[in-house]
User: What shape does this take?
Amino acid sequence: MTMVGYARVSSAGQSLEVQIDNLKNAGCKKVFSEKQSGASATNRMALQEALEWLREDDTLVVTRLDRLARSGKDLHDIIHRLSGKQVGFQCLQQGAVDTTTSMGKLVLGILGAVAEFETDIRKERQREGIEKAKKRGVYKGRPASIDADKVRELKAAGMGGAAIAKKMGIGRASVYRLLVRCH
Assistant: This one.
């Protein structure tokens, strides 16, 4: 039985050092780590490598549940995949999470639901804040990355969509979308 760690931070400016140290201190012989958003499990290469590397009777260990998954679906999919390989799962900061026990499985399900709820609430508050800012005229959204006037000017001069895209260094689809909105 090998304890295998997985550490993740969301951005390049964050450090993995504390997580890696905690995983090694917990007995992990191998640690997979990455700097990648946790929004989806599919785009995290180190996580996928860890899941492939694990063997029967191994245990995947994380410092916190949100390092593994941000959604209940991803959490359950990962745990299902581990279970299929007869691999256990432990979470250091939520000590009761240990899928090698029935109680640990129950706690994992509850914590996964709570984590997803917190994410939904955070998104809801963000949407509300954006709406309030828009009403006050403070939030205008992301500035346009394409000069619409320049696109229209080039089109009026007889240039086609592909030529406009090449001249402006933008995608053709962006030019065509803008032209459709203008008519």
Q: What stands out?
A: The first strand starts at residue 3 and ends at 9. The chain has a mean pLDDT of 87. The beta strands are 3-9, 30-35, 59-62, 88-91.
